[in-house]
Amino acid sequence: MKGSTRAKLSKLLTSVKKEGVKHKVRVALVEKDKVINEVKDLLSRYKVIAILDISGVPSREYKEIKKALSKYGVVKVYKNTLIYRALKDLSIRGLDELEPYLVGVNAYFFTNLNAFEIANILDKLVTLRYAKPGDKATDDIYVPEGPTGIPPGPMMSVFGKLKIRTMVKEGVIWIAKETKVASAGDEISVELASLLRKLNVKPIAVKLNAKVVWDNGTILRSDQLRLDIESFRKDLITAFQLSKNLAVNIALPIPEIMPEVLSKAFTHAVTLASHIAYVTPDTAPFAFRIAVAKAQALALILSQKNPDLRLNVGIAVVTTTQQPTQQPAPATEAKKEEEEEKKEVSEEEIAEGISSLFG
Questions:
Q1: Where is this region: Disordered (predicted)?
Q2: pLDDT number for residue 23
């Protein structure tokens, strides 16, 4: 081939290559613009984005979870740089806080659920897969009792190594009873991974975790998405009880507490009337019991100071539900009664008490 011909051919090939590169670049730019416009469209329909960490999640399990999430919104895997460009073009609030999370392998969940609903749903969407050597057990792992379908032979030693009691029955290895073979956090050995697969046991839980949720400008990290429902329930009950008690104590006139307000007011009124000896059909029994108790206490004091009076005195036990009873009181109780009653007994009551004792 002549030199001139070779030069022309080389020039032609270079030109073709350049055109090919330009074509690829044009296609790539078109695809990027398409993705950016798609993200913008999704953000016009959904106000919340959850960034899901899918690193290490097998394709099959990811598809299962994605399918379950599809009823709540749209799950897409995009390049982080394209997401950033789309969000920047839209001038969304909180982009600076969101940017540090746009790294790694992410799926983007566009939805109108709030952040706590998303976290709750993700916690429930758990799929199981076979264990691989080196995996960490996500929970305690058990092998069930019964036939394994594995013929006796070399596998018997594997069962023995894993401390699984077995027996040969009907031509296959049977597990004598359900056995725990690993605790949560334990590393799965080669032998255990192989055996679990043979037994069709899928012990490794797979779920997606939200790294962060963007809710119309508000950024919520993963550690802010966990709600202690039981603690919240207890706090709510306590708050309700405290507010109810306050409302009853200040006699707030609302239908929900009026029965308690009226009952409390009636009890206080009867108690007050009884102590000031205001006699009505409702207070008479209590007023008389209080009067008898005071008289008995006074008589006891007098008999201690002047035994020559020879007063036959007992202490009346006063309740609002039972008749007063006469019981002899020890000297120590008498002293306590003396201290309590000295402040309440007036001269008038002393006179009344003495009159009742001597007829």
A1: 322-359
A2: 47
Nearest to 171 by CA among 197, 139, 148, 192: 148
Contact 205, 139 (CB under 8 A): yes
Cα–Cα distance measured from residue 292 to residue 287, given in angstroms and rounded to the nearest whole number: 9
Name the packing angle between helices 80-89 and 3-45 (round to 10°): 60
CB proximity list for 283: less than 8 A, separation 6 or greater: 270, 273, 274
Which element (helix H / strand E) includes 60? helix 59-69
Q: What is the DSSP letter of 205?
A: E
> What region, left, alpha or beta, does residue 142 occupy, with left being phi > 0 and alpha being psi -120 to 50 degrees?
beta
Q: Please state, in angstroms and as integers, the Cα–Cα distance from residue 199 to each residue in 131, 144, 204, 349, following that order.
A: 12, 9, 14, 91
Contact between residue 358 and residue 310 where contact means Cβ atoms under 8 Å apart: no
Give the pLDDT confidence score for residue 355 in this predicted structure. 41
For the record, the structure tokens of 166 come out as 């077995």
Tell me what pLDDT residue 6 has.
Answer: 64
The CA distance from 158 to 175, in Å, is: 12
Distance CA 230, CA 207 (A): 23
Which residues have CB under 8 Å from 351's CB, separation 6+?
Answer: none
Confidence (pLDDT) at 36? 85
**pLDDT the model gives residue 3:** 62
Residue 198 vs residues 137, 158, 159, 193: alpha-carbon distances, Å: 17, 12, 12, 9
pLDDT of residue 359: 40
Task: Report mean pLDDT in 10-residue bins for the chain, 359 residues.
Answer: 64 61 54 84 92 91 93 93 89 90 94 92 91 93 94 90 92 93 94 94 92 91 81 90 90 88 87 84 84 86 79 52 42 48 44 40
Task: List Cβ neighbours of 148 (8 Å cut-off, separation of 6 or more).
Answer: 172, 173, 174, 175, 198, 199
- Put simply, whether the predicted model's pTM sits higher than 0.85 gets the answer no
* pLDDT given at position 297: 87
182 contact partners, CB below 8 Å, separation of at least 6: 137, 140, 141, 188, 192, 203
How far does Cα 128 stand from its chain's mean position? 24
